[in-house]
Amino acid sequence: MSVPEPVPAIEVRDVWRRFPQRRTSLRGGRPAPVDALAGVSLTVPRGGRFGIVGESGSGKSTLLRILAGLDRPTSGTVLFDGSPTGSPTGDAARGPVGRVQMVFQDPMGSLDPRMRIDAVVAEPLLAQGRRDVAEPVAAALAAVGLDADAGRRYPHQFSGGQRQRISLARAIVGDPAVLLADEAVSALDVTVRASVLALLDRLVTERGLTLVFVSHDLSVVRRVCQEVMVLRSGEVVEHGPTDRVWADPQHPYTRELLAAVPTLARSLELARDRADRQARAGSRADTRVDTRADIDHQQEERE
Ligand SMILES: Nc1ncnc2c1ncn2[C@@H]1O[C@H](COP(=O)(O)OP(=O)(O)OP(=O)(O)O)[C@@H](O)[C@H]1O
């Protein structure tokens, strides 16, 4: 008897998203529509980590917005756990709300400056109709390395890396199945980026999350994703295991993207080596410091 294939967490089948052109061309004439996505398909198994890379304008955010249920495809299908959502004729409101959480590039843009951190982190729970939020909010803050006191403060009282930790606390507090990260570490400097990536990696592993991680930088995607898709002008130009695409890119566009990477990759490696050295230096019997993430987090706090 054959064992049925497990249902993937996410399945995108031949998705197109067409936008009307925003501006008329200088030469006049009718503005042509833009296909932000042109026949994109992908499958992410439960607990899988899927990266999407491409330059600005390649369609990464459009795809993520569709996965988040914030936008609908012009045609094609998106399935979560085998059930359709956000189909062209379907009801976008039935989207994957609750099961899917998103982390954005700019925490200042996504955290309301007038709201205390405990209220910010509680938002997904309140949206689910939960009222008993204090305990899960404190647990989510602890899970991202912030103490309960942080809940009484406001976003501007934190560094960039800490604000991204707060975004992660808000993303995990409601126990989602899928995490969508849109350039989630791109605005952070190198050391802080390594620390937030290590935290993301740990949270995804510990909670068995399915991750879709968007970045323009393949060296960053390589740190957290097993599989990667390269998008250009809404089309998939390459798709495969991240290590293979990194080591042996098949498409000239992927090679171009990689040509921009070495400096970034090297500085990330240097930051990690530095954190390791500091961890070794700090591993006295009375010190609890034992991971790169801890070290990086302490550096971040000293900023
Ligand atoms: N609401 C919209 N109206 C019209 N065109 C849009 C809209 N959203 C995106 N586009 C166009 O779709 C294409 C893909 O945009 P998208 O933001 O998905 O790319 P991206 O790869 O995420 O780029 P970036 O990294 O700069 O955000 C671009 O040509 C963009 O101008």
TrEMBL record:
Give a GO molecular function annotation for the protein: ATP binding
Q: Give the matching CDD domains.
A: ABC_NikE_OppD_transporters
Question: What Pfam families does the entry give?
Answer: ABC_tran (PF00005), oligo_HPY (PF08352)
* InterPro entries hit by this protein: AAA+_ATPase, ABC_transp_ATP-bind, ABC_transporter-like_ATP-bd, ABC_transporter-like_CS, Oligopep_ABC_C, P-loop_NTPase
Where do the segments described as Disordered lie? 275-303
Q: What domain of life is recorded for the organism?
A: Bacteria
Q: Where is the ABC transporter domain?
A: 10-258
Q: Which UniProt keywords apply?
A: ATP-binding, Nucleotide-binding, Transport
Q: Does the keyword Nucleus apply?
A: no
GO biological process entries: peptide transport; transmembrane transport
Regarding protein family, the annotation reads: Belongs to the ABC transporter superfamily.
- Stated name of the protein: ABC transporter ATP-binding protein
Q: What is the lineage of its organism?
A: Bacteria, Bacillati, Actinomycetota, Actinomycetes, Nakamurellales
